[in-house]
Specification:
The protein has 3 helices and 2 strands; from the N terminus they run ααβαβ. By secondary structure, the protein is an alpha+beta fold. Helix 3 links the parallel strand 1 and strand 2.
């Protein structure tokens, strides 16, 4: 799950990754279509942002959310 902006995602991303901007007001509802029982790997610009994404996903019920090293 790439939590960067759409512009950042468009410039460079991992093939087949899903982009949902963590700053979008629709972030919670958009992530609700993902399976909370499966691992989710968070991709961001840096480790701090990725950790923020992991925390947010944990709050939303994703128990196996992990930050991709290096953001």
């Amino acid at each position: 799950l790439d939590i960067r902006t759409a512009e950042e995602f468009k410039a460079n991303h991992i093939e087949k990754s899903v982009n949902i901007d963590i700053n979008s007001p629709k972030f919670d509802s958009l992530t609700s279509v993902l399976y909370s029982s499966l691992p989710v790997y968070i991709i961001a610009n840096d480790d701090k942002a990725a950790d923020k994404g992991v925390t947010r996903m944990n709050i939303l019920g994703f128990r196996d959310a992990k930050a991709l090293t290096g953001g």
